[in-house]
Amino acid sequence: MYKIGNYEFGNFKYRPGHRANYGILAKPGNNEWGIKYSPTYSYDREYEILKDFSHPQIPKRYESGTGRGDLYENDKLVLKEYYIVLQHFEGEDLVELYKQNGVPGTSEMENVIKYITSAAEPLQYLHSKGYVHADIKPGHLILNPDSGTIGLIDLELSIKEGELIKGLTVEYASPEQKEMNNLLREVTDEKGEKTVLQQVKIDGKTDLYTMGLILFEVLTGKIRAQTSQPPIEINNAVPQKLNEITLGLLEEDPSNRISSTEILKSELASI
Questions:
Q1: 79 burial type by CB count under 10 A (0-12 exposed, 13-18 middle, 19+ buried)
Q2: Helix 204-220 vs helix 175-184: angle between axes, to the nearest 10 degrees?
Q3: Where does the record place a coiled coil (predicted)?
């Protein structure tokens, strides 16, 4: 048994590419809370951001460790950890699901459309609040297999529209995120940051590009960086309209990209 502060959990999972371990709290009669923890990364910012949101597909926050709490394993002190306690979303990584089951055939396309439409719901809410998730990747879209809904998690790097990015996952970053990241490498002061903000704007279209990367991976089993082929040429079960939507999300120039979650949902509904 593990324990941090007043919270106990029976086991944890380490997720590659994440800055945290994660455990489901062992609270009698309740498996709906999770604890995310790291010896080096504070969750105070994510805790503050989550206070602005109330959506069933975005986790509620319960507590953030002030400073670092002692992590015990079977009553033996291991080390100090930063942590955040939040709502647990049970389910599967959307991309991993199709890695295990194989690329979707014709009969599965209805589910793919349903899942991407579901993922657009919390994004639409987030964008309506003036925020950008800015770190959507497969492990941050959790599919509940019973309801078919997607939970959007890990808002550590979320920003308000027009702010500087706080980091990025290169494999799932938009062109404008990469451009901003490259420019920030040369910045040494606030004036330089303002110059970068005048050159590059991060808004909801950044999240939509990343959704395109994930949709491409679900449909083809390939990472977009591996091929320039459209999805329909890799998987002939992909409907023409869904192929067009995927490519519309993946436009390098944000001005040519599908511009909003509302439009994305409308396009998906027309298939």
A1: exposed
A2: 120
A3: none
The CATH code of the domain that includes 161 is 1.10.510.10
**Same structural domain, 43 and 101:** no
Please report, in tens digits, the pLDDT of each residue of the chain (271 residues total): 888 888 888 777 766 556 678 888 876 555 688 889 888 888 999 999 999 999 999 999 998 766 678 888 888 988 888 899 999 998 989 999 999 999 999 999 999 999 999 999 999 999 999 999 999 999 899 999 889 999 999 999 999 999 999 999 999 999 999 999 999 999 999 999 999 999 999 999 999 999 999 999 999 999 999 999 999 999 999 999 999 999 999 999 999 999 999 999 999 999 9
What is the distance between the alpha carbons of residues 201 and 11, in angstroms, rounded to a whole number?
41
- Name the residue type at position 177: Q
| pTM of the complete model beyond 0.85 | yes
Domain stop point among 87, 120, 147: 87
Q: For residues 176 and 132, is the Cβ–Cβ distance under 8 A?
A: no
